[in-house]
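Reviewers asked in the last cycle whether our approach scales beyond single polypeptides. To address this, we selected a multi-component target totalling 736 residues and predicted its structure end to end. The input consisted of the following lines:
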Amino acid sequence: MSDHALSFMPSEGFRARSKEVVENPFLRKSFRGAMDFLINKRVTQFPSAEELETLRTLGEQIRQYNLANLPSLLVQLEDSLTRNGIKVHWAETPDEANAIILGICQAHSAKLMVKGKSMVSEEIELNHACEAAGIEAMESDMGEYIVQLAGEKPSHIIMPAIHKTKEEIATLFHEKVEGVDYTDNVDELIQIGRRVLREKFLVADIGLSGVNFAVAETGTLCLVENEGNGRLSTTAPPVHIAITGIEKIVEKLDHVPPLLSLLTRSATGQNISTYFNMISGPRKADEKDGPTEMHLVLLDNGRTQAYADEELRKTLQCIRCGACMNHCPVYTRVGGHAYGTTYPGPIGKIISPHMLGLEATKTMATASTLCGACGEVCPVKIPIPELLMRLREESFSEPHANPAMRGQGAGYSRLITMVWQGWALVYRSPMLYGTYSWLASRFNWLTPSNQGPWTTVRVPLKPAPKRLRDLLKDKS
Amino acid sequence: MQIQGKAGQRPSDIYFFATCVIDQFYPGAGMDAITLLEREGIRVHFPEEQTCCGQPAFTSGFPDEARKVAAHQLTLFPENWPVVVPSGSCGGMMKLHYPGLFAGDPARKAQSEALSARIYEFTDFLVNVLGWKPEDKGGDCTVVLHTSCSARREMGVHLTGQQLLGGLDKVTVAQQDHEAECCGFGGTFSIKQPEISGAMVEDKLKSLKATGAERVVSADCGCLMNILGHAAWKDQQEGRKTASLPGEHIASFLLRRTSK
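The resulting structure, written as structure tokens, was:
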């Protein structure tokens, strides 16, 4: 196992981390307020339920069509990109991806990398790899910049610093940025960030970005952003490296507009993002600006495992809008850091097990009531609750040969399995159920008053003295 | 096959699948639902051999165990009558998940598909099959309705409870904040993630109480077990002798409001 995988053991300590947040009234209120804001913004973007449903179905079909043809589309994408002068690299693991990126940096004797927002770069922990190699990696998205200054990780895939208040950011800027007085005026804070970052764009050796959609036919990399830092990161430095997961592919440009519309409306409640970049190659001979060299790193990191299973493949439909976390009552209570994974919330719970294995994530799928809010808002109709149930089964079932997932059976417990087998024995037999439920009702005074976790905030559950079937007999 | 119980076709007989939660913990809710249906002139059949829909094992990651329990329930409804379930959650399991659960068993799959078409959640059955319009015989009262996530998002029957309560002249239905949010029960979730579950039910109770309603009603006893269990605990903690927010199954409330 690589060092990378060891640095993530999200299942360990999830309860402790979530407890900490849940018991902090300030954080509770702040997360709730932030999520309500995003929920309401999305609502205004979809006034017609019918249109939303049509668009979601279209989004689902586009994603499923492209996933169904993924192997051939990837080959086509590589051809198109190569034709356009973009060098394509394939990475199976985060370590391989980091090695490729550092290799490019070293070939250019790079000292400074500016980064547009990229969750895949978080997934491979690129900033650590750069630091170890003596390269300064600087986040240029305002939220990512704040998180980096604070030495933290993003707590949301779209709004990385959503867990921070403006006062906390004011203090952070005052302490960490040279010559900055304390101000909690949001506009001033943004201007400070902008000033610092502008200088870096001009001198950076490498610009790094993510990709929202990679178009196979044309070899175009689409990048959605709001701050213009994505455009600067991909145009100002002499070398641009893009990194993305292999699933972000679409066959044709026609597939982009519906997905883009679903993405911005679902994510931030915007009709369209402020910037939408379509990158089709490095600077041409007659052009005055743009990078002279371009690379795309395509990362697997467990995605082919999800791909191989018809049901789990649906996980890869995701376009990373974050609506599932905004609407998740669990995410709203605990925030993104409690999960301990790059991708938090419902999408994190279904994708992280493929990236990190079930050993590290064996209990993550249990942190859901299966309320279905995530599946309801997902713009590409990923059946998240069903996938969570599938992951519970993969984790808790007895280890067997040829599993669909790495770490299958990691959560297996002989005792728990026997409890469920015993339960099934009773509930499949009217006679055993009848006896058991009769005893439970007649001896309900024996019901324990301490029922473990249930009674920490609830009164004990006590069977009624007579069951419904008894009351019905009394009546007739 | 002609299914009895489509709108406009009033069935003379129905099956009642009570759910294990009602059988053991809320038998009064089951009795009230049956009484209400019988008052409408319907013969209600309660197959004595019924136990549980199998959902607890199904959602906990033990589909084999769920399948065994579900297979038993499949044998209970031989006549082509509607099966009324006073729970969106258990109804959703039987209507929407049984066919998938038996995907590898053609005979049971066919059986579960036929059964699926006959499953009705209680409030849906009252409104959309019987066209029942309650006649309010009670005094002024303000209630707040909690709709389960399964009723809302799986069964799509979140409007029928509102409709029934809205039809009671002297009942005001209070509006709560975050109405569509889960109460935090989630079956074994409440045991496996007690801190998060506790925070969710705490917030849910606050929203319900903030409406000033006299009571909470719900068509799902799983949620009631959680919400009322927390409300009673809170009352104990704060030294109250009477319930600050009593609650009951919507069947009990409807029966009382429409009885002299």
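The radius of gyration of chain A is 25 Å. We regard this as preliminary and will revisit it once experimental data from Aim 1 are available.
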